[in-house]
Design brief:
By secondary structure, this protein is mainly alpha-helical. The chain is built from 9 helices and no strands.
Length: 209
């Protein structure tokens, strides 16, 4: 008779966490942040609500962690060679090509239904809930913006950008137009648009002769 094998509690916990992440993201996308509840997440995930309260102090904490996990998975799918290593903007020596690659990937993420609904819901709630908005910026946006700063500073050191340009302001010339068009749905968000943003921004940031 084969020996009895005890259940792997870590694997069970991982499955439960994944189910909770997926449930939270689905509900916030379907019903919005305010209508999403711990009880609803638990029911959708097939777990007891006490399981959620044991791991997270609030609905906001569940959703934030779920969204960070979703963003990490999207980054891994976009760059499977990274193997979980810290993601960074490529530095091939061609700044325009590197930025276009990243902005095109951003367009794809924003247009992905799996990402779009929860991103819109959390963005909207972050506008009226200052605490949630600050957490969203600190945990998700700031680490991503730091990657742009690193790449733009490297371009400055290589003489590809004006030495007096502020990288933090320069990156806003790249991502703000995408965010504006996506949030307000003014026009389609496309790769061609992303490429044009890079061309326009770099034209103004190029060293002056």
């Amino acid at each position: 008779m084969a020996p009895h094998k005890a259940p792997d509690s870590s694997r069970r916990s991982d499955r439960s966490r994944r189910a909770i992440y997926d449930a939270a993201l689905a509900l916030v996308g379907e019903s919005g942040y305010r209508r999403t509840t711990i009880e609803g997440i638990a029911a959708r995930a097939g777990v007891g609500k006490q399981t959620i309260y044991r791991w997270w102090p609030s609905k906001a904490a569940v959703l934030m962690e779920a969204f960070l996990d979703l963003a990490a998975r999207a980054a891994e799918e976009a760059d499977p060679q990274a193997g979980g290593a810290e993601y960074g903007i490529p530095d091939t020596g061609d700044l325009a090509a590197d930025l276009k690659l990243v902005l095109r990937a951003t367009v794809d993420e924003l247009n992905d239904p799996l990402m779009e609904a929860p991103t819109r819901a959390l963005t909207a709630e972050g506008i009226v809930d200052a605490k949630l908005g600050a957490e969203f910026v600190e945990k998700l946006l700031d680490p991503q913006l730091a990657l742009y700063v690193t790449r733009l500073r490297a371009a400055q050191e290589a003489g590809q950008l004006r030495p007096d340009a502020d990288p933090r302001i320069a990156l806003e010339l790249l991502i703000a137009p995408l965010t504006h068009r996506w949030l307000l749905r003014t026009l389609p968000l496309t790769h061609a648009y992303a490429d044009t943003i890079v061309d326009y921004a770099l034209g103004g940031l190029a060293p002056r002769s």
